[in-house]
Amino acid sequence: AISQILQRESMKSASTLKKIIKFDKNNPNLYLAKSIVDIYNLNPREADKNIQMASKLNNEESLISTIKSIQLISNFLNFKIRNLINI
């Protein structure tokens, strides 16, 4: 029950962030937020695209470690999914 609610809300969040990004295309924080939601939704490919955009747009030294951490989580998820598919 709770997991279904969280899943539904995360899908709404992904949709909302996608709309907001259309209005503020140069904000790396929005792309990072979307990548986190993508990771939660087990969509690492979409997360990777958003991480790459955040990295490309980033001008803040302080955001680099956050980008790298989120990229590491996405890479781990990608690895796990590929291993499950190959089994």
Can you walk through the features of this model?
- It is a single chain.
- The protein is 83% helix and 0% strand.
- The chain contains four helices and no strands.
- The protein has helices at 2-23, 28-40, 44-57, 64-86.
- The model has no long low-confidence stretch (mean pLDDT 89).
Approximate helicity band? over 70%
Mean pLDDT: 89
Low-pLDDT ranges = none
Structural class: mainly alpha
SSE arrangement, N to C: HHHH
Query: What is the CA-atom radius of gyration, in angstroms?
Result: 14 Å
For the termini, the CA-CA separation is 30 Å
Strand content: under 5%
| Overall body shape | globular
Q: Helical region count?
A: 4
Secondary structure: number of strands: 0
Largest sheet: none
Brief digest:
The chain has helices at 2-23, 28-40, 44-57, 64-86.
Task: Please tag this protein with its features.
87 residues; 0% strand; mainly alpha
Blueprint of the fold:
Elements lengths: L1 H22 L4 H13 L3 H14 L6 H23 L1
